[in-house]
Amino acid sequence: MTHTMEDMNLSRRLLEQFLTVAQEKHFGRAAERLGMSQPPLSQSIQRLERTVGVRLLDRGPGGVRLTAAGKVFATDAQRLLDLQIAAVTRARRVASGKEGGVRVGYVSLLSHLYLPTMLREAAEQLPGLRVHLHHSSSAGVADQVRDGMLDLGFLRDPGRLSDELVSRLIVTERIGAAVPRGHRLAEARSIDLVQLADEDFVLPHPTALPVLAEQLQLACREAGFTPHEVATADDLSGLFSYVSAGLCVSLAPESLRHLADSGVILIPLQGRTNHLDTAVYAIHRPDADAAVIRLLEMTTNLQPQGL
């Protein structure tokens, strides 16, 4: 007789009963161990054999022993039970954010500054969680998080975000002056922004880095001048490239000091103004799952790598 999968009702209880009989090699002892009487146990095993379509046990006056088919079935039955436990455990771990995958987007040099700390914390506290990193512009990260292509994003001063996204301030940094090595001010411990009034500037592109671009314009105007723009860059790496080439100066977060190449010096700026602060934000959708929230919890006290 041929049995289809629809015919088979291999419940967890039935498999456990069979394995207990196989281990005890005796219906009486197996029934006692299972906390049931012997007749129902015998009926269950008979029902199992009918379902499988083969004899699994040889019965004798002294007990039972597994047939060749029964030995193979016992091995596979134990594997099935183990897989059930593993499936339930894994589902619960994923639901609680302890396992699974999180797609994280980031911009420019944030991967060198803050992400290493978060990745290290995740590896130590959530070893079952896999973090997949994707680089893009601020607008690209925001769009991909909104569209569900990314689960979590880190970017600087995101400006006005879609109402579909939630933002969380991670850290606020001070902006400093980036000048080429060998510049007349390179040895200064700190300077006033107005000391750069006659310099050529490379500025953040207003489309790629709108908030930072506006901040730098406002800070310079507050200092009494309009920066003389000779170039723009879509990210902070581009700003550093122009400065390192000795072609101009710029403004950039002071935390990037240790990441700037040997051709760039970052100098603290004096004076009080809100225009010289830049912030790093985490963004996600309102329906973010537990893994995203757990990863966010690890960003509370993020510090730049190497500082």
Q: Termini, distance in Å?
A: 73 Å
**Alpha carbon gyration radius:** 32 Å
The CATH topology of the domain at 170-278 turns out to be: D-Maltodextrin-Binding Protein, domain 2
Instruction: Outline the biggest β-sheet.
Output: 7 strands, mixed
Helix proportion range = 25-40%
What is the SS-derived class? Answer: alpha/beta
Number of helical regions: 10
Strand content: 15-25%
Looking at the structure, what is the overall shape? rod-shaped
CATH architecture of the domain at 170-278: 3-Layer(aba) Sandwich
SSE pattern, N- to C-terminal: HHHEEHEHHEHEEEHEHEEEH
User: How would you state the average pLDDT, rounded?
Assistant: 85
> Which stretches of 5+ consecutive residues score pLDDT under 50?
none
Q: Which CATH class of the domain at 170-278?
A: Alpha Beta
| Record field, number of beta strands | 11
Structural notes for this entry:
The mean pLDDT is 85. Helix 1 crosses helix 2 (27-34) and helix 1 (12-24) crosses helix 4. The longest helix is centred in the N-terminal third of the chain and has 28 residues, at 68-95. The chain has 307 residues and is α/β, with parallel strands linked by helices. Strands 3, 4, 5, 6, 9, 10 and 11 form a 7-stranded mixed β-sheet that branches. It has a two-stranded antiparallel ribbon with strand order 1-2. The chain has a two-stranded parallel ribbon with strand order 7-8. Among the domains are: 5-95, Winged helix-like DNA-binding domain superfamily/Winged helix DNA-binding domain (Arc Repressor Mutant, subunit A), CATH 1.10.10.10; 170-278, D-Maltodextrin-Binding Protein, domain 2. It starts with 11 loop residues before the first helix and ends in a 10-residue tail after the last helix. It is 38% helix and 23% strand.
